[in-house]
Design brief:
single chain, binds nicotinamide-adenine-dinucleotide, alpha/beta, Rossmann fold
């Protein structure tokens, strides 16, 4: 693994920081000097992430449900109070997946996935109202960056998915939300550029996390046969890319979607 991003003195907020890719992102950011607010709907797992970070005492864990604006605002206020500043680095990693045949998927299941990954009050009003789970957090945190006059240092990374670009059988609702996360990333990048905030997203392929473990092993193995590198990725391999996109090393990148897939899906 490379090191080299320097986040010394910076505050990061990571949603879904209690597990998988979000946890690995917290670990890499802490390694590189950031003070990290680990946010998750599962507070216990967020606390466990904090316990695993370098530079103990610099980091905090908070309950956050990304689909609830009050919960997002409360976690942000608590972060500002405890870490004595406003996060300028934001990673939206919270997400859920449900495996269901498209023809048999209930509206409730579809909406549950949509709600967390891409919060829309009403799926049929997507062109009118697009309040996203990821976007809700981005909106609250980016407004805070602008209010506190730190937006010029701002950088947001959304965790989308290769499924958002290529589609995924049995996970149509999931793939739909991830395609929307990609489009939202590009729109936010355009709109927020004048504030100094950059917004990018990453498209992981199969990454070895608790989420991937929800898929039947034989389906994962079948998918990996078509993977040029012949294996699933590790969360740290995504986290290093996220750190690069958050850092000044990617200062001319905004609105990008970068694949981290072992070559799968070109
Ligand atoms: N693992 C993969 O193969 C893969 C591939 C492509 C994209 N992704 C994406 O990467 C992101 C992280 O996935 P992962 O594999 O690390 O999954 P994970 O299940 O290990 O972690 C997801 C975390 O999100 C949290 N979360 C769920 N709902 C939440 C909510 N409403 N509010 C706050 N936190 C919530 C969970 O508690 C969990 O800690 C997700 O957005 C996922 O869609 C994963």
């Amino acid at each position: 693994m490379t090191s080299g991003t320097n986040f010394h003195g910076m505050i990061a907020m990571v949603t879904g920081g209690g597990s998988g890719i979000g946890r690995a992102v917290c670990q890499i950011l802490a390694r590189d000097g950031a003070r990290v607010s680990v946010c998750d709907v599962n507070l216990q797992s967020a606390l466990e992430t904090v316990a695993s970070l370098e530079h103990q005492g610099d980091h905090v864990a908070f309950y956050m449900d990304v689909t609830d604006k009050n919960s997002v605002s409360n976690a942000l206020s608590a972060t500002q109070e405890k870490l004595k500043g406003t996060p300028t680095l934001l990673v939206n990693s919270a997400g859920i997946v449900r495996r269901t045949r498209f023809l048999e998927m209930s509206e409730e299941t579809f909406m549950e996935v949509v709600h967390v990954n891409l919060k829309m009050p009403n799926i049929y009003e997507t062109t009118m109202v697009s309040l996203q789970g990821t976007f809700l957090v981005s909106q609250v945190v980016c407004n805070a960056m602008i209010d506190r006059d730190v937006a010029r240092k701002g950088s947001v990374v959304n965790i989308a998915s290769l499924a958002g670009k290529n589609g995924l059988a049995m996970k149509s609702g999931y793939a739909a939300t991830k395609g929307a996360v990609m489009a939202l990333t590009k729109s936010c990048a355009k709109e927020l550029a004048k504030t100094g905030i950059r917004v990018n997203c990453v498209l992981p392929g199969a990454i070895r996390t608790p989420m991937l473990a929800l898929s039947p092993e034989e389906h994962v193995m079948e998918g990996l046969k078509a993977n040029p590198l012949g294996r699933a990725g590790e969360p740290e391999e995504v986290a290093e890319l996220v750190a690069f996109l958050l850092s000044g090393k990617s200062s001319y990148m905004s609105g990008a979607d970068v694949e981290v897939t072992g070559g799968h899906g070109f």
